[in-house]
Each structure stands twice: as C-alpha cells, then as structure tokens.
Amino acid sequence: MSASELAAAVSEALAVDRERFQERAEEEATALKAEVRDGTFDNSQAIVGLEFELYAADDRTDALRRVPRQLLERIGFEQELGLHNAEMQTAPLPLNEYGIEGQTRQLQANLAPATERTGAENIRLVSDGLWTVPPNGETAIEYLTDSVEQDGIRIGTNMSDSVRYHAMANTAYPSEFRLDAPHVSLQADTVMPESLITSIQPHYQVPHAPDLPERFRYALRVAGPLLALGVNSPFFPPECYDDAHDREIVADAHMEHRIGIFESVLNPPAGSDAEPKVRFPRDLDSVEEAIDRIVDDPLIVPMDVETGGRFDDRFAHIRHKHGSYWRWVRPVFDGATRSGANARIEFRPLPGQPTIRDAVAFTAVFAGLLESLPRREHPVRDLDWVRARENFYAAARDGLDANLTWITGGGETTATDELYGDLFEHARDGLELRGLSTAEAHRYIKPLRERLDRRMTPARFKHDFVRRQVREGVPLGEAIWGMQSQYISRQRETLLEGIFVDWLQ
User: Which InterPro entries does the entry link to (predicted)?
Assistant: First the structure.
C-alpha cells in the first residue's frame, strides 16, 4: 500500500461517525449478553491457545532487520506493529496432555521451516522481550521516530500498513507516544516506540462463560508471580539512554521494561482527563460487567467494520473496540462459528521467552492454576486487589527479587519459596485434574521451577552479563550489544527443543 493510499484509508476510518459506532456496540452488547446467558459461549471443556511474537535480526550482525512482506506471507506469519515484527498463533486445543503438547508441536512445526526460509536471506527470527541493536546504518531513535505527513495524515515510516496502527497517531485520544523509564526519554509522533517489545500471550477458554469473573480474579492474583518468573527486558538500545553514568543505568534497570513501555507510549500523559487504557484491571463481578467494560472503553479508531460469514460478526463493533482494550489481563468473547464461540482470558503480561518450551511452560502453568485455584477455593482469592496490583508492578521492577505477597492455607506470606511452592503445587494439581500424569505435569512445570531454584530469569541472565562487563570497564553500549549477541547465539541451539536453563549449564 502506497503512502497516499494508506493516508486515504486512515482518513476514511477517522471519518466514521463515533456516536453511531458506539450505539452499534451498545446494541450488540445486548445480543451478546443474551447469547452468553443462553450458553452459546460455553465449552465442553477448558481450551488453551498461545500467541507467540518474534522480531527479525541480521544473522551475521544481530542488527534489527525488516521482514519483507512477501517473505512474511510465505512463512505463514502475521504482521505486527513494526516491519521487523512477526507473529504466529496456535490453534486452540483442549487442556489435556495432547492439547498442551499440541501447542509445542504447532510452534515447532511452523517455526522450523520459517527459520530455514528466513535464514536463506540472512534473517534470524528471535524470541525475546525487547530488541537492543538497531538496523545496520540506522540509529534506534531514527528507526522508532521516523514518520512523514501525507495529505495531512501522520504515517510511521517503519510501521506495517495496518490502518488502525497509523490511525492511532491521528485521533483525538491523547496517547503520549513517549518512552518513560529510568534514564530513558524518547518522544515520537506515532505508536512506533511500542514496537521495541515482543510478547507471548497464553489464552484460557473457560468451560462455562458465567464463571469467567471467578477465574479472572485468580488470573489477576497470579499475574505478579508469573511475571516475576518471565521477566526478559532489562535494557534498551544504548543510545536511548540519557546522559548518566553506566553503572547508575545498570543499577536502576527494571527487570521487565515492557510493562512501562506499553503504558507510557499508549496511555495519555499524567494530568490528562482521558482514561488510561493500558493498566492492571479490576476484578469483575459478573460476565455482563466484562462485556460492559469493553463497550464503555474509550474508542480510539472507529472504522467501518467489515463483516462476512462469521458468527461473531454479529458483535463486530465490540470486537473492534476490543482491539484497543489494552488490559494486562483481559476477557475476550468471539468465535467464527456458533459452535466455536468462546469466552476466554488473555494473559498479556509476559514478554517473549528464550525458547518454545519455556513459552508453553507458562501456558501450562497458567492454565493449571486457573483449573485448580477456583476448584480448591484457594485463599489467594481474598488477596486484596491493591496488593495484587502492587505485586504486578513490583515483579516488573525486580523480577524474582520482588517482595510479593501471597496467601496459603497457613495465611499471608512474603516468603518466595513458600509462595512458589504453593503456586507450582496447584499448577500440578490443575494439570492432573485435566488428565495429565504427575510426571507429565512436572515436565511442563520444570522449566519455571528451575528458574526459581536457581534464582535466574532471562532478565537476570542479561543483567548479570552487562553488570559484569561494565564493572570491568566495558562501555555500556558494547556491554548491551555483547549481551544481545550472547542471547541470540544461545537461542540458536535451543529455540525449538531446549529450555532457558540449558543456557546455564
């Protein structure tokens, strides 16, 4: 799509009547609630799925690479925000031993030939939390901030040609488009700085849609502990840092900067009257409230929604609004057919992981917890929401060093080993409730349990490398790029079959 065609498409989207769009969404909500009450969105069993994002790097220099659109289509991946991004999704499968292993096999089956094809063009697909080496011959700041004005529309030069991404820079909603992190400040005219980050997103389809709020409540309580295990983005591209001493930058780094990036780029500035859209959500009292929250969320880009033969085209305006309903844990209602309609929970805090098996381990543990905790009426349900939110942001800052609060049968605890001992035990219980043997459940939990035992996350691995280098007098930029080279090199041999702790042997 040319710049002029893209600008015209953005202008067309912005011309849609917002009030009428909102009216249509509210009308659809009435029908959606009726379908939920009638059991249309129930499943015969729990079902899991996974979104898996990557970025492209030069196979010789580790520098960020744009992925040609035709190549992306040939390897069967979906485009994301940046031209360097790629995404694949697994088909939803039953939560049982075959369904979880199926998640692994789908990712391996798609990624193995994709890696071979991209490798022929000296491109390596990297599963990571945040890229740090800019494209050859460019600076990171240039890549993230380059934009042009075409026919009065602001177009991000390095963004994919998705109309909604570009429309965000041309609407009245006051996204700040700014990176705000310790010793980092970068201002852009588009949402492009958000393309620094990549993620995995486990999905859990609830068997009985009205039970979604109860499982949602537990999902919020496990968000902090699971994020602390998964942190993977302690450093930015070196040139993004302000003028500060290298050791100070290293000391003040968060273990997971993806949380702050997403919030600071897409939310309005402090003091704005506009409601922040990226945030840790509150508990739900009912499934109807979950629908109402999506419908009532501020609309950024209205657009004329296309409909076809899908069942959930009856709720097309709600589905479109959901696309900018940015909560770290969020409910989803969709389905291409009536029989496939589902209510699910998307778990969005986790950054990209070093290997496929690490990503599937998070999917299995998250799903196991959502099976066991409600069934056993686990007392962490009563952990105050404010404390659950504090756990979440503490985990982003400090990873496994965070001071997290949990509740066990013996009462409230902040002891890390007690917290995770209880969490892993209930993840095992939940997987066994879905038919896995004890040995199979332990196999999926093992990659995360070993992180705990070693007190080593991908972020800590990166941070330790850079800290050692800086202490030895290596400039911060060289230390970060050396770390990135180590990460990509070790992933080369383990992405498809290994796990992160293999790197520590």
Answer: GCL_type2/YbdK_subfam, GCS2, Gln_synth/guanido_kin_cat_dom, UCP012666
The tally of CA atoms less than 13 A away on the side-chain side of residue 421 is 9
pLDDT above 80 for 70: yes
Decide if pLDDT at 376 tops 90. yes
Domains and CATH numbers, the chain: 3-174+200-234+277-504 (3.30.590.20)
pLDDT per position as a tens digit, 224-242: 999 999 999 999 999 999 9
**Cα(182)–Cα(367) distance, integer angstroms:** 34
pLDDT of residue 1: 72
| Bridge partners, 56 (sequence order) | 125
Q: Which of 29, 11, 5, 7 is nearest to 303 (CA)?
A: 11
* CA–CA–CA angle 38, 43, 48 (5° rounding): 140
Sequence-distant (≥ 6) Cβ neighbours of residue 342 within 8 angstroms:
41, 43, 47, 92, 205, 206, 332, 333, 334, 335
> Which among 88, 350, 98, 318 is positioned nearest to 219, based on CA atoms?
350
Place of tokens 């898996």: 52
* Cα–Cα distance, 216 to 211 (Å, whole number): 9
pTM, whole model, 2 decimals? Answer: 0.96
